[in-house]
Amino acid sequence: EFLKRFYNNKLNVSDETVNSVKEILIQEQRKQYKLSAKTGAGTGIDITNPERALGWYVGYIEKSENVVYFAMNIEGESFNEILAPRIEITRKILKELRIID
Length: 101
Fold this sequence. Notes:
The protein is built from four helices and four strands; from the N terminus they run H-H-E-E-E-E-H-H. The protein is of the alpha+beta class. It has a four-stranded antiparallel β-sheet with strand order 1-2-3-4. The model has no long low-confidence stretch (mean pLDDT 94).
């Protein structure tokens, strides 16, 4: 819901600010689609294993007249363990669903 509100400029933030953030979020732009996303991560999610990490990759794809929203959540034993897979797994799923190339 947050991504939808952000995309549709419904966050009580100026259009200029939202549009600036949208430009920053562009990860890939092709003729068929535009992928916009942001990563996030943190450690300390498990007091018995302080190195255990939580990662996110959230965003949206604009394709023709459609917008597809996605959110990937991943956990691992360390930050390095989740760093690349959070994006790689998401892209693989989006490709399998034929949302991106």
